[in-house]
Amino acid sequence: MTFINRPLLTMVSLTALLASCDGLHLKPAPQTTDSPAEAKWHPVGKTEQASTQKTYDTVWDHIRAGFSLPQASNPAVDAQIRFYTSNKAYFYKITQQSEPFLHYVVSEMEANGMPMELALLPFIESSYNPTAASASNAGMWQFGDATGRNFGLKQNSWYDGRKDVVASTDAAIRLLKKLYTKFDKDWLLAVAAYNAGDGAIQQAVDKNRRAGKPTDFWSLPLNKTTQGYIPQLLALSKIVADPNVYDFKLYPIADVPYFVKINVDSQVNLAEAAQNSALDGALLKKLNSGYKGWLTDPTEPRQLLVPVDAAASFKLQLDTLPKVANLKWQEHQVKKGDTLDAIAKRYGADANQIKTINNLKSTNLSLGQRLQIPLSPTSEIPTSLAPEKIAAEQTVPKEKSNFYTVKSGDNLWSIAKSQNMTVDALTKLNKMTANSGLKPGQKLLVTAQAQNSVASQSKTLNYTIKSGDTLGKIAAKYDVSVKQIMEWNKIKDETSIRPNQELIVLVDAKN
Known about the structure:
This protein is mainly alpha-helical. The chain has helices spanning 11-22, 36-40, 59-65, 75-85, 88-97, 99-111, 121-126, 145-150, 165-182, 187-196, 198-210, 224-241, 270-277, 281-287, 311-318, 340-347, 351-357, 392-395, 412-418, 423-429, 448-452, 454-457, 471-478, 482-488; strands at 137-138, 143-144, 259-263, 303-307, 329-333, 370-374, 403-405, 443-445, 458-464, 502-508. Helix content is 41%, strand content 9%.
């Protein structure tokens, strides 16, 4: 397991943290769960359904009732209390930011028999921001790549489980429980290990044991970051336990579920889903931060988190949304000089479709921006996903022969569409990739029968490379692709050719 030390909150970081809070447009938490949504969907969490569960006016009351960590009054804890009391506006802001997530975390802690102070850890880790990210860690619980994967948090180009509120909370609880067991049921050591890694804490414990010294948290020789981690948590606990003592005001959060989980049977465009259901798009995206873009993962997870008070209407609208199904995707990271049209041409896609799918407000792109590109349309693209149909759909002529001759303006997508085939099938048939370029006059195989008859319709030429030749020039000369020449001659690097080298080129037998 790889853990990265997390630095203490400082005044330098306040501006960035406050900025992240402003990005979430919060809606009032529902005051009751007695709604049509409750009859059809269960709030996410293990404890909400228990009829005998004690109820609280606010989630803060719920947290206080479950405090069980050993408290301590020492200079380190006092220093952290002074830090928070000198930044009350900041603290109020991050308690506001926690509103959509805090009840869920508290419920999960209670269901697992955990000290309720641990529900405050995301305040320290990320200011309760599920999109928080650093060079090594991500999400509300700030999991590293390797640790996240070790605890089942899927990470791919579509989805990052470390930013999924439900998945990461489950992983964090399992990790904390594992550390609690390892360190002889000492919660302070377990929490310290969550910050520094179990190896670092175990080494410190072993060192003190060999020296005949106490092995409790306060006695261990730890780095400054970890030494301050527990005092931060205990300082927060003291403030939450009795905010009036410290002249604090906590953002009022009702002790009821904020969101419910809704299962979906295909990919969903979050921007469209929000628009169709009159939901705040930023809030819907924030609740579903595990999805990197506005499209959900094409495989799993197949679920969305939706505010309780909007669940019923959202479910009704979800059934009417165009399905983003049967598409193959390619992630593209924007590089210098990229334009939307150039990217579309490169992948044989439609610029308007790319714009809509990635929820782009304009055609302006940013360096490093990641776009999801649809590669292989095997079913009709919903009109709402492609507001302007590609003109080539109507203009590219359909040839009934086994070959298609590329025309100006053609791309792989339009050719595949005109021949009633997929881009994937077209590229495989011609031993190309989705990135392969096309040129007017180039001949492409468009039927399997053509592939079987290539040998009888082609003849082999021997070409001797001249000074100044490139594979591109040779390919253009004989109306073939560079990739085909490389495969025919087993060339791995097109820059490795040399004058007087002999190449095999297959050309149309009629030429």
